[in-house]
Design goal:
By secondary structure, the protein is mainly α. It is about 75% helix and about 0% strand.
């Protein structure tokens, strides 16, 4: 397993380099001008100097190489400096946002906690709810509980977050007045009262995100459980006198979790993309809203860095899913 993990990590390096090149070239071909946000009163020669200051006057391959050095070499040094108080990155030029003229990673670090509060909580809530629903729906196939779970899953799949988000705002914020409709990103949780306020403003965005994730995971869990409930080893386990709980929750569940682990692991990076719409609806000042603002302002360094971070998360969690396969199923060997 260790050899497989090291080999996959080594193979991930050229994969991520190729992904970064594709992202960079696509953004280079995208229409738009970073100087479009500059007021019209600014003279053309000043705009040209600003363009050169942003590095736009250099060839494409030079700018791509500088971005690679900044992202893979300078930014890790900055992280080490912040943790241990060293000065490895002193004076080095970092990846700078064209919109804010500040380091991109500093802005990402500022926005990340807001996204993790909402997305992380929604994913945990969805997993806790979806897995028991999928297990019981498969065990009680075609029962009223299974029919209800199927209906709720269809609703979760069908209703887009920009509609469900507005709907819960109208019901729980406008009509009932239970929760705030706008997420207060300036709230500092330093007491019990502020913690309660944080939970209150998280309820609706978490509800919207968790609905989609629960619908997906519960269906996968149900289908995987049904495939294993009719296998020969299940009949053998029952014939040996094992209790129904042990048969279902130990033998069947462990084998059924293999495809579900893939959905859970690969869904973690993709939910950050799905949270873009939810963050826009509830005004959560997180990664999703940061990406939308960078696209609208044609802030290519910010867009490139965020999309590449999403790619890194996909590669990383894909590796985590493969490692978990070997843990769940002893028959799977990578060495």
């Amino acid at each position: 397993m260790l050899t497989f993990t090291i080999r996959r990590l080594i193979l991930a390096v050229p994969t991520l380099l190729f992904i970064s090149l594709v992202i960079f070239l696509l953004l280079e071909l995208a229409p738009g001008d970073p100087m479009a946000q500059v007021p019209l009163t600014v003279p053309p020669e000043v705009k040209e100097k600003m363009r050169l200051a942003l590095g736009l006057g250099e060839p494409v391959h030079i700018r791509f190489w500088k971005w690679l050095v900044q992202f893979f070499w300078i930014e890790p040094q900055v992280l080490i400096d912040n943790i241990f108080g060293t000065t490895f990155s002193a004076g080095d030029l970092r990846v700078i946002s064209w919109q804010t003229r500040s380091p991109v990673m500093d802005i990402v670090v500022q926005r990340l906690p807001q996204t993790l509060w909402v997305v992380g909580t929604a994913y945990i809530v969805a997993i806790v709810i979806a897995l028991p629903i999928g297990i019981y729906s498969a065990y009680r196939q075609y029962s009223w509980f299974d029919q209800m779970g199927t209906f709720v899953s269809m609703v979760g799949f069908s209703v887009p977050p920009f509609f469900s988000g507005v709907l819960v705002i109208v019901i729980f914020s406008v009509q009932l007045g239970w929760f705030p409709s706008i997420y207060d990103t300036t709230l500092v949780v330093d007491s019990w009262d502020t913690f309660v306020k944080q939970l209150q403003q998280m309820v609706m965005p978490v509800m919207v995100l968790a609905l989609q994730i629960t619908a997906q995971l519960s269906r996968f869990m149900r289908a995987s459980m049904l495939d294993n409930l009719n296998q020969d080893y299940v009949r053998t386990a029952r014939a040996k006198g094992l209790s129904e709980y042990v048969v279902v929750m130990v033998h069947v569940l462990r084998n059924s979790m293999i495809p579900v682990v893939t959905v859970i692991a690969l869904g973690i990076p993709s939910i950050f993309g799905g949270a873009i719409i939810t963050e826009q609806v509830f005004k959560v000042n997180g990664i999703g809203q940061l990406l939308i603002g960078a696209i609208q302002a044609n802030d290519l360094p910010m867009v490139q860095t965020l999309t590449f971070i999403f790619a890194v998360l996909i590669v990383l969690f894909n590796l985590i899913a493969d490692v978990l396969y070997g843990i769940l199923d002893p028959r799977i060997r990578y060495d």
